[in-house]
Write a structure and sequence with these properties.
This protein is of the alpha+beta class. The chain has a single domain, classed as Alpha-Beta Plaits. 24% of the residues lie in helices and 35% in strands. The chain has a four-stranded antiparallel β-sheet with strand order 2-3-1-4. Strand 2 and strand 3 form a beta hairpin. The protein is globular, with a radius of gyration of 14 Å. Keywords: Monooxygenase, Oxidoreductase. GO terms for molecular function: monooxygenase activity. This is Heme-degrading monooxygenase HmoA. Pfam families: ABM.
């Protein structure tokens, strides 16, 4: 998952970008599901996470090297910053 600290007054725009994107995830072997999660609100941001589930770590890694990944991430950002800093990637593997 990637965590984003979205500027409070940019939440609607941030969500619109995610809801309107062409993700190409369904074209990838091993893709299971995707969720955009909204978390707590702080004084200067709202925490969001893009959460994707893959069958295997190798399937996820193939996605990150794919043409579909480049297409999905090629959309130009808005004219103003939507979030503070860079997204923070957090990878997890199933234990049980």
């Amino acid at each position: 998952m990637n965590r984003f600290k979205v500027v409070n007054d940019a939440a609607s725009e941030f969500e619109a970008v995610w809801l309107g994107r062409d993700s190409h995830l369904s074209e990838m072997e091993g893709f299971v599901e995707f969720h955009l999660l909204r978390g707590p609100t702080y004084d200067d941001h709202i925490l969001y996470a893009s959460h994707t589930v893959w069958r295997t770590k190798a399937d996820f890694e193939s996605w990150t090297r794919s043409e579909q990944f480049r297409k999905a991430h090629s959309r130009a950002p808005s004219s103003r910053p939507l979030y503070l800093g860079h997204p923070q990637f957090e990878g997890f593997e199933t234990v049980e």
